[in-house]
């Protein structure tokens, strides 16, 4: 039974002993949330800041993780009716599979990133490469993972100051692949990424679509469908083929088109931002300055 979602409370859910779903945190504890943005990935990602807390025993809904972004805290958890204690250091994570029972607690203020991964997203990541039951994760508690910490801090920064929706989508897929490689238990699975490259006809079709739809909000799913792959497989194959991940390649195309339109002098920087698919004018200005050393307005005025 799913309880109605109230306001900006967490979209990451737990299930009590009666079968009722409820939020992991109230709205005032949710600092940033993917549900508040144009977030296309099935991954639900949030940053919480919570006072000392102890959860009642519950079942995890979706594969879930938490990663400490603040000071080390003493963490308690329960497995098979046994209590455990450990130190959750900065950058350390806990991860559990869908349906696992838990009852965590901490006695100091905790700032952490938390994510919920639908089982369907894991199955899509594995695709045809696994002929086994749905993958789950090894239970981890207070485990350091430097690469996961880097992913999480980048995703958290994206929530705090959104840039390109395609970037968040691509990054969340790469994050899930990392988690599967580092913490997954998929029987018989040895290789997470498809080998080889996109065929010339596939690459041409994707590039033609990118150019045709550059002014729109391009999605990773749309590009993957054009090539005939899942988003996970497509991201890996595209980078192997072009040397760049999809979001970086699209950004380069947008910048080149923006520079051409500004040089022609028929459009204002605001219109150019809209015509080239940037998230907003501020994002366009920041990215353009970083790439070319000046603002779009300066470039358009001929000061280059």
TrEMBL record:
Keywords: DNA-binding, Transcription, Transcription regulation. The keyword Transcription regulation applies. One of its GO terms (molecular function) is sequence-specific DNA binding. The keyword Thylakoid does not apply. InterPro entries: AraC_XylS_family_regulators, Homeodomain-like_sf, HTH_AraC. SUPFAM superfamilies: Homeodomain-like. This is Transcriptional regulator, AraC family.
